[in-house]
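Weekly puzzle thread! Below is a chain. First person to post its structure in C-alpha cell form gets bragging rights.
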Amino acid sequence: MKYRNEYFLQFPRTVFKDPHFNSMSINAKWLFACLLELEHRFTGGKNKQDFFFQSNKDIAEFMGVSERTVQKAKGELKKAELIKTWQMHWRDPETRRLSEKHVSAYRLSM
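Winning reply:
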C-alpha cells in the first residue's frame, strides 16, 4: 500500500465498498483521508511500526477543523472499524523517558 511517493496518496477502493462509509459525515471521510496521509508519512522506517501517533490538536490543525470535530469523526471511523486507536505516551529516543503529553495512536484497518 505504501509506495513512498511524494506526489500522490493512494486511497483504498475497499473503503468505497464499506456500507458504513457512504453514510459517514464529510468530516469523517476527510479525517480518514488525512489519517492515510499521516500513516504514509509516519509508519514504517527503521522501527517498522504499523501505527503512528498524533494529538487531536495536531490532527485538528492538519485538517483545518476543531478538536471536537476530530473526536466526533474519529468515533465514526472507529464504529465502522476503519481505524483502531488508543491513548499512549511517546518515548523520547534520546532520554528514553515517556512524554507527559498524551497522544492517540492510530492503526488503519485495511
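Puzzle host: Confirmed. Bonus trivia for everyone else. The chain has a mean pLDDT of 85.
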